[in-house]
Amino acid sequence: MNSVLIVGSAPDAVRIQSVDCSMFSHVVAINNAWRLRTDWDYIIYPEDFPKAQQPTTISAKKIITAEHYVPEQNSFGGFIYAGGTMAFTAGYWALGALQPDVIAYLGCDMIYPKQTEEQSHFYGNGMADPLRPDITLQSLEAKSARLLAFAKSHDCRVVNISEQDQSRLLFPKMPLTEFATPNNVSHYLQENEVALNTKAMQQALAKEEELSYMAPSGRYWEMLAELDPEQLRSVDDLWLQTVSYS
Fold this sequence. Notes:
It is a single chain. The chain is built from seven helices and eight strands. The protein is α/β, with parallel strands linked by helices. It has one domain (3-245). The strands form two sheets. It has a six-stranded parallel β-sheet with strand order 4-3-2-1-5-6. It has a two-stranded antiparallel sheet with strand order 7-8. The longest helix is centred in the middle third of the chain and has 14 residues, at 140-153. The radius of gyration is 17 Å and the shape is globular.
C-alpha cells in the first residue's frame, strides 16, 4: 500500500517524534514541521517561507517548492478552488506526484486557541495562516471536502490521524496504530467508507469551469479584483455536498 503522511505544525504534530515512519511510504513535512525530526522524505513550503526558517542540513532533493507543487495543483483546478494554504497544497501535490492509496494528515486540524496563553503551533505562537482573510479560504471544510472528493476519484483515501477533539478537516478519523498493518488499513477504510456524490462533484466542477478562475503561476492574490467571493461561496456549497460518511 502506497501511503503518505503529511505533517503540519499544530501542537499535536509533536507526536511525529515517536512515530515509526516506516509504516508509511512517504512522510511530508509542511513549513516548520521539518524541525520535528530529520528523516523526512519531503519538506514542502511556499515562496514566502522565511529564509531563516528553511532547513539547511536537509538534501535539496527533498525540498518541494512552487516549482514542483504549482503544476500539480493546477492539474487539479488550481489554487483558487483548492484553497490557498499549504495543508491543501501538500495534499494535491502528494496526490499528483506520489499517486498514493492513502493520504494521512497529522497536525493540520486548523483549530486555533482563542486565549493567547495557549500555543497555536508546536513551536509556540505563530500566524494562523488558514484563518487569514483570504477569498480562497471562506470554508476550510469545503476545501477539505474538495480534496477528499478529488482523491477518492483517483482511488485514494484521505484520513486524519489527529487525536484532537475538533478539526476543520472533514476527513474521517483513523487511529495511527492501524497503519502498522496494511490489512488493518484496508479494513478500517472499508468500515469507514466515504461516499462520493458524483452528481454534486460534476456540478461543482462545471461551476468552476464556468467561472474559469485560474492563476497559472499560483499567485492568485495578483488577480483578486477578478474574483467574486459570492461565486466562490456557491462553489464551496457544492463541494460540501459531494461527500458523506457511512
